[in-house]
Amino acid sequence: MxxxxxxxYETRLYWQGERGAVLTSDRAPPVPIGRPLSGQDAVALGPWxxxxxxxxxxxxxxxxxxxxxxxxxxxxxxxxxxSAVARVVCGVDQPPHLTDLIVRPHVAVSTEADAEAVRLIFxxxxxxxxxxxxxNITPRIEPVVETWHARIIGPGVSPVSASxx
Length: 165
Description:
alpha/beta
């Protein structure tokens, strides 16, 4: 017999008139959303657009999947920060659609061996983390991986030099 795990994610959307709504979940605070996927309306001040939420979800999934893989590879992560961008193309005779989804993590580890392990993790992450059945466009991950060498000064550790690749 095969074990199968099923996880459900349930959200509720409450329309608030015009172009606004609130997205709720039993496990997270409410998120105001708004603005449709279109040219001039795509830049929103205030509520999160569904497209920005998608980009944020992909960026968050990248972080969590990376940390899980780093733990399994026994890599000690000293620093992680990222940015992400999605490009939406709006054509005259076609509906708006995503053409690129790029996550740019910046990671620091203490050794070159760990840096190589991190590069390998990121190279394999899109296929493992984002099957085509979840997102119709495979996110591109463009990591910056640094090794931070440290020397001991008194009771603490102080960075001395860094190298990026």
